[in-house]
Amino acid sequence: MLALNSLMTRPMARAISGLVRAGELEAWSAERLLAIDVAVERYPPGAVIAAPNPGVLGLDILSLDAAAPGGRCAPNMKWLLDGWICEARALSDGQRQIFSFGVPGDVVELPSTPHSRVVVALTAITCVDAAELLARSADPDEMLEAMSRSTGLAVARRYEQLARLGRRSALVRLASQLVELHDRLAAVGMVRGEEFALPLRHEELADALGLSPVHVTRCLKTLRQRGLMVMKFRRVSGFKRAEMEQLCF
Amino acid sequence: MLALNSLMTRPMARAISGLVRAGELEAWSAERLLAIDVAVERYPPGAVIAAPNPGVLGLDILSLDAAAPGGRCAPNMKWLLDGWICEARALSDGQRQIFSFGVPGDVVELPSTPHSRVVVALTAITCVDAAELLARSADPDEMLEAMSRSTGLAVARRYEQLARLGRRSALVRLASQLVELHDRLAAVGMVRGEEFALPLRHEELADALGLSPVHVTRCLKTLRQRGLMVMKFRRVSGFKRAEMEQLCF
DNA sequence: CGGTCGTTTGAAGTGGTTCAAGCCTTGTGG
DNA sequence: CCACAAGGCTTGAACCACTTCAAACGACCG
């Protein structure tokens, strides 16, 4: 991997190492990935990432290849190289529900039906189109499998999120969300010791956790007072993962 | 379809008509379905429906066929012919979160990792194994597509559920859940006018909606007083769908 | 007919929201 | 380099939605 690092841009290296660490790609295939010449897309914060192809009705995930007769394809998926995104829905009363966050290395399925769900860049991001990547890949099957493993993990996280919202107190919701993000960031090498970047405002956490921003502030204060973490200037420091997890039961 | 009805058992007919109405199977293929001789499984209320095959890590949905090299298979999926099931998780503090309900005609993916999620029969149920059905089907591709469409709808409902739990009041949560169930039951011909069977206790609704059973009682009372519906003796009557939906915004 | 399970209702408590003000950080222009 | 504005964070006080506890009632089942 040493030789690789000198060849790669940092975000690309991070994303690849993300897939590798999650066991989603064999280590040696990272080299092959680099050989692929694919256009890197850039979006500014706040940009809505829309699907290029009109999707098949209600099939977001499953269209992965079931929809392509006999074929391997990944319609409307992006591989996030750098930056944060979220999947969200704006509700009729002006509120917003954030369904999930996406961090570097994640594979994101863009919604086919436009207004059920929106993918928004929370920071400046760079990503590549999954279908393009597959088309140019020497071993598309392997890469497709890596990608579906990534989206499979996203599915599991969605169940986690349901349990959080339905049956957890505000403090536990926040703590478990932070543990999840910590672990995902750690998997792609974006945690150093007890510290990591977290470019989310209280409002985004609130919209994900079904709370008011004010109460997120208060819960963060509680965590701070208990010495479990400090969130300041878009960074988390002093993150005590073990105690944090214990708090969640 | 008339000729068919005389040949079929009622649950089978209902389930098939469910897939047909949802546009998941061409009408003419219902006949072919009946030709398949597949074992019907029965479970009593409370039974846990476990997966026969150890699953691939974290791949529940996506293993649909991505995991089968070059193949069409549907591991650990059941096609529910009759009765109600739910997907749930028991939390460490004794509480329960119900992720979703399954009604006749639904295709249910059983969890591969046992304790993340459990599928439980809420009533006596009958179902068939999807893989077996496929194996014996003359046109497995078409049937697989129908099934993935069904699970695709389940994915969409999961987003709906997230928004419900995160950003809706108790009354709206309940109303929107009831509208959803009404529509799903209507699609399989299980609604007659403003009436349908709903074999759920307040406790099950509470566990799905993240509320206390007592508060479900109160919300049902409110709906009753507003003349939107009556839920009694495991049946809903006087269900005013339009007003109900309007209440949800 | 009595026991059990589920529903209903009331009263009291609590966790989270809302509103409003002050503060701190960051960015901008003189 | 400072003044100022804007956006986000923080804190307090009042309020409300939902929970918890407890008791009574009703339906179903042996």
Can you describe what's shown?
The structure is a homodimer of 249-residue chains. Chain A is of the alpha+beta class and 249 residues long. Chain A folds into two domains: 2-164, Sandwich (Jelly Rolls); 168-247, Arc Repressor Mutant, subunit A (Orthogonal Bundle). Helix content of chain A is 43%, strand content 19%. Chain A has nine helices and twelve strands. In chain A, the strands form three sheets. In chain A, strands 1-8-3-6 form a four-stranded antiparallel β-sheet. In chain A, strands 2-7-4-5 form a four-stranded antiparallel β-sheet. In chain A, strands 9-10-12-11 form a four-stranded antiparallel β-sheet. In chain A, a hairpin with a 2-residue loop joins strand 11 (230-232) and strand 12 (235-237). In chain A, helix 6 crosses helix 8 (213-225). Chain A starts with a helix and ends with a helix. The model of chain A is unreliable at 1-7 and 55-71 (pLDDT under 50). Chain A binds a DNA duplex (30 and 30 nucleotides) through helix 8.
